Amino acid sequence: MHPLTTMVVGDVGKGAIGEISAHLAATLDRILDKTLELKKAGDPSDLALFGPFLGRATIEMSLIAITARFDPFRILAIRKSQLAPTFDVTERNPVAFSWVNDVLGEGKPKDWDQKPSLKDIQRAILCKHFNDVFWEEAFTILLDSVPVSRGANWMTALKRIDPEGFTFFMRTTANRVYAELSKGIHTEFVIPAAAQYDPVTVGDLLSRAWELAAALGITTCYSPVVRSLLASDPLECYEQAQEEID
Predict the structure, then answer these.
(1) Domain coordinates in residue numbering, the chain
(2) Is 118 left (phi over 0), alpha (psi -120 to 50) or beta?
(3) 93 and 243 in contact (C-beta within 8 Å)?
(4) In this structure, is the dihedral angle defined by the CA atoms of residues 161, 129, 110 and 123, taken in order, positive or negative?
(5) pLDDT tens digit string along 203-213?
(6) What is the reported pTM?
(7) What is the dihedral of CA 20, 25, 27, 33, to 10 degrees?
(8) What confidence tens digit (pLDDT) does each residue in 103-152 have?
Protein backbone atom coordinates (compact mmCIF):
# COMPACT_ATOMS: atom_id res chain seq x y z
CA MET A 1 0.00 0.00 0.00
CA HIS A 2 0.96 3.61 -0.47
CA PRO A 3 2.34 5.14 2.77
CA LEU A 4 -0.60 7.54 3.05
CA THR A 5 -3.03 4.67 2.50
CA THR A 6 -1.27 2.65 5.18
CA MET A 7 -1.71 5.42 7.74
CA VAL A 8 -5.40 6.00 7.13
CA VAL A 9 -6.62 2.46 6.35
CA GLY A 10 -4.30 0.52 8.65
CA ASP A 11 -3.71 -3.20 8.31
CA VAL A 12 -6.42 -4.95 6.32
CA GLY A 13 -8.21 -7.39 8.62
CA LYS A 14 -10.56 -10.30 8.04
CA GLY A 15 -14.28 -10.71 7.50
CA ALA A 16 -16.62 -7.99 6.30
CA ILE A 17 -14.57 -5.12 7.72
CA GLY A 18 -11.49 -6.59 6.05
CA GLU A 19 -13.27 -6.61 2.70
CA ILE A 20 -14.20 -2.97 3.19
CA SER A 21 -10.65 -2.01 4.21
CA ALA A 22 -9.19 -3.82 1.20
CA HIS A 23 -11.57 -1.97 -1.12
CA LEU A 24 -10.81 1.40 0.49
CA ALA A 25 -7.06 0.74 0.33
CA ALA A 26 -7.14 -0.25 -3.34
CA THR A 27 -9.29 2.76 -4.24
CA LEU A 28 -7.19 5.25 -2.29
CA ASP A 29 -3.97 3.81 -3.73
CA ARG A 30 -5.35 4.40 -7.22
CA ILE A 31 -6.35 7.97 -6.38
CA LEU A 32 -2.92 8.76 -4.95
CA ASP A 33 -1.09 7.20 -7.90
CA LYS A 34 -3.18 9.23 -10.34
CA THR A 35 -2.50 12.38 -8.32
CA LEU A 36 1.25 11.89 -8.60
CA GLU A 37 0.98 11.11 -12.32
CA LEU A 38 -1.03 14.28 -12.83
CA LYS A 39 1.48 16.43 -10.95
CA LYS A 40 4.42 14.91 -12.78
CA ALA A 41 2.84 15.49 -16.20
CA GLY A 42 2.19 19.11 -15.25
CA ASP A 43 -0.41 19.82 -17.94
CA PRO A 44 -2.29 22.98 -16.78
CA SER A 45 -5.62 21.93 -18.32
CA ASP A 46 -5.51 18.43 -16.85
CA LEU A 47 -4.49 19.79 -13.45
CA ALA A 48 -7.41 22.22 -13.44
CA LEU A 49 -9.87 19.58 -14.62
CA PHE A 50 -8.83 16.51 -12.61
CA GLY A 51 -6.79 17.89 -9.69
CA PRO A 52 -9.73 19.13 -7.58
CA PHE A 53 -11.56 15.82 -8.02
CA LEU A 54 -8.53 13.78 -6.93
CA GLY A 55 -7.89 16.06 -3.95
CA ARG A 56 -11.46 15.86 -2.70
CA ALA A 57 -11.57 12.10 -3.28
CA THR A 58 -8.40 11.77 -1.18
CA ILE A 59 -10.05 13.56 1.73
CA GLU A 60 -13.33 11.66 1.45
CA MET A 61 -11.77 8.21 1.15
CA SER A 62 -9.37 8.93 4.00
CA LEU A 63 -12.14 10.04 6.34
CA ILE A 64 -14.25 6.98 5.51
CA ALA A 65 -11.25 4.72 6.14
CA ILE A 66 -10.43 6.38 9.47
CA THR A 67 -14.08 6.13 10.51
CA ALA A 68 -13.91 2.41 9.77
CA ARG A 69 -11.02 2.07 12.24
CA PHE A 70 -12.64 4.03 15.06
CA ASP A 71 -16.29 3.14 14.41
CA PRO A 72 -16.58 -0.02 12.29
CA PHE A 73 -20.29 -0.29 13.13
CA ARG A 74 -20.97 2.85 11.07
CA ILE A 75 -19.20 1.56 7.98
CA LEU A 76 -20.56 -1.97 8.32
CA ALA A 77 -24.07 -0.50 8.51
CA ILE A 78 -23.45 1.30 5.21
CA ARG A 79 -22.25 -1.98 3.69
CA LYS A 80 -25.39 -3.81 4.84
CA SER A 81 -27.64 -1.15 3.35
CA GLN A 82 -25.78 -1.30 0.02
CA LEU A 83 -26.00 -5.09 -0.13
CA ALA A 84 -29.74 -5.14 0.59
CA PRO A 85 -31.96 -6.35 -2.31
CA THR A 86 -33.90 -3.08 -2.15
CA PHE A 87 -30.80 -0.89 -2.60
CA ASP A 88 -31.26 1.42 -5.57
CA VAL A 89 -28.39 3.60 -6.82
CA THR A 90 -30.93 6.04 -8.31
CA GLU A 91 -32.38 6.85 -4.87
CA ARG A 92 -30.76 8.72 -2.01
CA ASN A 93 -29.52 6.26 0.59
CA PRO A 94 -30.33 7.64 4.07
CA VAL A 95 -27.49 5.58 5.55
CA ALA A 96 -24.85 6.87 3.12
CA PHE A 97 -21.69 8.54 4.43
CA SER A 98 -22.30 12.28 4.64
CA TRP A 99 -19.90 15.22 4.99
CA VAL A 100 -22.30 17.08 7.29
CA ASN A 101 -23.47 14.17 9.46
CA ASP A 102 -20.40 11.90 9.51
CA VAL A 103 -17.55 14.40 9.30
CA LEU A 104 -18.70 17.67 10.84
CA GLY A 105 -21.67 16.97 13.08
CA GLU A 106 -23.46 19.79 14.88
CA GLY A 107 -21.48 22.91 15.63
CA LYS A 108 -22.45 23.11 19.31
CA PRO A 109 -23.34 19.69 20.72
CA LYS A 110 -24.22 19.18 24.36
CA ASP A 111 -21.22 19.21 26.67
CA TRP A 112 -20.61 16.42 29.15
CA ASP A 113 -21.63 18.52 32.16
CA GLN A 114 -25.02 18.97 30.50
CA LYS A 115 -25.63 15.24 30.92
CA PRO A 116 -26.22 14.38 27.25
CA SER A 117 -28.34 11.33 26.54
CA LEU A 118 -27.15 8.64 24.16
CA LYS A 119 -29.02 10.28 21.28
CA ASP A 120 -27.26 13.59 22.06
CA ILE A 121 -23.77 12.12 21.74
CA GLN A 122 -22.45 12.66 18.25
CA ARG A 123 -20.21 10.25 16.34
CA ALA A 124 -19.14 12.54 13.49
CA ILE A 125 -15.41 12.07 13.08
CA LEU A 126 -14.52 15.76 13.47
CA CYS A 127 -17.09 16.73 16.09
CA LYS A 128 -16.41 17.75 19.68
CA HIS A 129 -17.54 14.47 21.21
CA PHE A 130 -15.18 12.51 18.96
CA ASN A 131 -12.40 14.85 20.04
CA ASP A 132 -13.11 14.32 23.72
CA VAL A 133 -13.36 10.54 23.41
CA PHE A 134 -10.64 9.78 20.83
CA TRP A 135 -8.66 12.56 19.18
CA GLU A 136 -7.31 14.52 22.15
CA GLU A 137 -5.85 11.41 23.76
CA ALA A 138 -4.37 10.10 20.51
CA PHE A 139 -2.85 13.45 19.57
CA THR A 140 -1.32 13.90 23.03
CA ILE A 141 0.32 10.48 22.74
CA LEU A 142 1.62 11.38 19.28
CA LEU A 143 3.15 14.64 20.52
CA ASP A 144 4.82 12.83 23.42
CA SER A 145 6.14 10.05 21.17
CA VAL A 146 7.56 11.73 18.06
CA PRO A 147 11.23 12.78 18.31
CA VAL A 148 12.02 16.43 17.65
CA SER A 149 13.95 15.63 14.48
CA ARG A 150 11.22 13.54 12.83
CA GLY A 151 8.25 14.36 10.62
CA ALA A 152 9.71 17.29 8.64
CA ASN A 153 7.60 20.40 7.92
CA TRP A 154 4.23 18.74 8.33
CA MET A 155 5.09 17.56 11.84
CA THR A 156 6.51 20.97 12.76
CA ALA A 157 3.15 22.53 11.88
CA LEU A 158 1.23 19.74 13.61
CA LYS A 159 3.12 20.23 16.84
CA ARG A 160 1.93 23.83 17.07
CA ILE A 161 -1.63 22.62 17.68
CA ASP A 162 -2.86 22.31 21.26
CA PRO A 163 -4.35 18.84 21.89
CA GLU A 164 -7.62 20.34 23.13
CA GLY A 165 -7.98 22.26 19.87
CA PHE A 166 -6.87 19.45 17.55
CA THR A 167 -10.30 18.56 16.21
CA PHE A 168 -11.41 22.18 15.83
CA PHE A 169 -8.26 22.89 13.80
CA MET A 170 -8.75 19.79 11.62
CA ARG A 171 -12.45 20.53 11.19
CA THR A 172 -11.72 24.10 10.07
CA THR A 173 -8.92 22.98 7.74
CA ALA A 174 -11.00 20.17 6.26
CA ASN A 175 -13.94 22.49 5.59
CA ARG A 176 -11.73 25.07 3.89
CA VAL A 177 -9.76 22.66 1.68
CA TYR A 178 -12.87 20.60 0.85
CA ALA A 179 -14.76 23.75 -0.20
CA GLU A 180 -11.90 24.99 -2.40
CA LEU A 181 -11.60 21.62 -4.08
CA SER A 182 -15.35 21.30 -4.55
CA LYS A 183 -15.47 24.68 -6.29
CA GLY A 184 -13.12 23.27 -8.90
CA ILE A 185 -15.30 20.21 -9.46
CA HIS A 186 -18.59 21.98 -10.11
CA THR A 187 -18.95 22.91 -13.77
CA GLU A 188 -19.92 26.52 -13.13
CA PHE A 189 -17.00 28.19 -14.88
CA VAL A 190 -17.64 29.68 -18.33
CA ILE A 191 -14.03 30.76 -18.50
CA PRO A 192 -11.17 28.22 -18.70
CA ALA A 193 -10.86 26.56 -15.29
CA ALA A 194 -7.08 26.93 -15.45
CA ALA A 195 -7.56 30.68 -15.02
CA GLN A 196 -8.62 30.06 -11.41
CA TYR A 197 -7.03 26.65 -10.84
CA ASP A 198 -3.56 27.20 -12.22
CA PRO A 199 -0.83 24.56 -11.60
CA VAL A 200 0.50 26.32 -8.50
CA THR A 201 -2.97 26.60 -6.94
CA VAL A 202 -3.90 23.00 -7.72
CA GLY A 203 -0.53 21.72 -6.51
CA ASP A 204 -1.03 23.56 -3.21
CA LEU A 205 -4.55 22.19 -2.80
CA LEU A 206 -3.39 18.63 -3.45
CA SER A 207 -0.56 19.03 -0.95
CA ARG A 208 -2.98 20.39 1.66
CA ALA A 209 -5.37 17.49 1.05
CA TRP A 210 -2.55 15.00 1.59
CA GLU A 211 -1.31 16.85 4.67
CA LEU A 212 -4.79 16.81 6.20
CA ALA A 213 -5.27 13.09 5.50
CA ALA A 214 -1.79 12.33 6.81
CA ALA A 215 -2.34 14.33 10.03
CA LEU A 216 -5.54 12.46 10.80
CA GLY A 217 -4.04 9.15 9.68
CA ILE A 218 -0.91 9.30 11.81
CA THR A 219 -2.89 10.52 14.83
CA THR A 220 -5.25 7.58 14.40
CA CYS A 221 -2.25 5.23 14.51
CA TYR A 222 -1.33 6.57 17.96
CA SER A 223 -4.80 6.02 19.44
CA PRO A 224 -4.89 3.25 22.09
CA VAL A 225 -8.31 2.10 20.85
CA VAL A 226 -7.16 1.48 17.26
CA ARG A 227 -5.17 -1.59 16.26
CA SER A 228 -1.51 -0.69 15.76
CA LEU A 229 0.20 -1.17 12.40
CA LEU A 230 2.01 -4.51 12.37
CA ALA A 231 4.52 -4.15 9.56
CA SER A 232 4.82 -0.38 9.06
CA ASP A 233 6.07 2.58 11.06
CA PRO A 234 3.42 5.33 10.82
CA LEU A 235 6.09 8.02 11.21
CA GLU A 236 8.04 6.68 8.24
CA CYS A 237 4.81 6.58 6.22
CA TYR A 238 4.12 10.17 7.24
CA GLU A 239 7.54 11.32 6.05
CA GLN A 240 7.35 9.35 2.80
CA ALA A 241 3.94 10.80 1.90
CA GLN A 242 5.25 14.32 2.46
CA GLU A 243 8.29 13.71 0.25
CA GLU A 244 6.11 12.41 -2.58
CA ILE A 245 3.63 15.29 -2.76
CA ASP A 246 6.04 18.20 -2.12
Answers:
(1) 3-245
(2) alpha
(3) no
(4) positive
(5) 999 999 999 99
(6) 0.93
(7) 180
(8) 998 777 888 888 888 888 888 999 999 999 999 999 999 999 999 989 99
